[in-house]
């Protein structure tokens, strides 16, 4: 999708909650859900609707930006957000509890890291990308929105922050576990990654229960 036709996020959805007394928005987005290696990450971005500064003009869903563009925009997003964080759930947690519970754990960790001191819970709305509420929380209001990472600035920003954070972790793992192409595939099941599994076997960072078909050849 070219930059000319790709969706541009706005504040429209976030602002629609002001009439309900919402003052703060937390945008959440996950990265690494479909990977076969590495932790899953959930990014969180907090904004205050009454004083939202201008966000970077080229902000888009992380999947619509190049790796170089994501890295370049990261410092701007971190300065722009009132608060931001990334929560992780480990491969062991994914294997033990399943991906949905792991996403909930990662999201909870991201939310706990946000600075929400002095903010009444009933004035906070969490916008979760997708159509499934995997959070399981009752301290904040939660709404799901399909493709929120493309239409909502808070969620788009969360997607970029989570993506860059997780990518950096995978780059470090690529040094520890060479031969799997983790620096380029970031843990997804690329052809190179699948072939490396057949040749080299699995590692502690692989989601073993996800690899049955690949390992069967």
Topology, pairings included?
Elements: H1 12-15, E1 24-31, E2 40-48, H2 67-80, E3 83-89, H3 91-97, H4 99-113, E4 124-129, E5 141-145, H5 148-151, H6 153-176, H7 182-185, H8 191-200, H9 212-215
Parallel strand pairs: 1-4, 4-5
Antiparallel strand pairs: 1-2, 2-3
Structural commentary:
The protein is α/β, with parallel strands linked by helices. The protein has a single domain (12-175), classed as Ribonuclease H-like superfamily/Ribonuclease H (Nucleotidyltransferase, domain 5, 2-Layer Sandwich), CATH 3.30.420. Helices cover 40% and strands 16% of the residues. It is built from 9 helices and 5 strands. It has helices at residues 12-15, 67-80, 91-97, 99-113, 148-151, 153-176, 182-185, 191-200, 212-215; strands at residues 24-31, 40-48, 83-89, 124-129, 141-145. Strands 3-2-1-4-5 form a 5-stranded mixed β-sheet. Helix 2 packs across helix 6 (153-176) and helix 3 crosses helix 4 (99-113). The longest helix has 24 residues, at 153-176. It starts with 11 loop residues before the first helix and ends with a helix. 43% of the residues are buried. The model has no long low-confidence stretch (mean pLDDT 94).
């Amino acid at each position: 999708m070219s930059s000319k036709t790709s969706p541009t996020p706005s504040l429209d959805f976030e602002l629609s909650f002001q009439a309900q007394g919402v003052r703060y928005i937390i945008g959440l987005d996950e990265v690494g859900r479909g990977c076969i290696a590495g932790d899953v990450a959930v990014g969180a971005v907090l904004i205050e609707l009454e004083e939202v500064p201008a966000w970077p003009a080229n902000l888009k869903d992380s999947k619509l930006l190049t790796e170089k563009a994501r890295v370049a925009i990261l410092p701007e997003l971190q300065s722009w957000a009132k608060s931001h964080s990334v929560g992780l759930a480990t491969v062991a947690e994914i294997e033990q509890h399943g991906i949905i519970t792991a996403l909930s754990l990662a999201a909870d960790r991201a939310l706990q890291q946000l600075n929400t001191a002095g903010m009444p819970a009933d004035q906070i709305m969490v916008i979760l990308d997708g159509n499934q509420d995997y959070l399981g929380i009752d301290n904040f209001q939660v709404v799901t929105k399909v493709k929120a990472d493309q239409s909502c600035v808070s969620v788009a920003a969360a997607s970029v922050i989570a993506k860059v954070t997780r990518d950096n972790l995978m780059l470090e793992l690529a040094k520890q576990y060479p031969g799997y192409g983790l620096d380029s595939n970031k843990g997804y099941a690329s052809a190179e990654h699948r072939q490396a599994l057949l040749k080299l076997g699995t590692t502690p960072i692989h989601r073993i229960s996800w690899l049955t078909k690949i390992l069967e050849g």
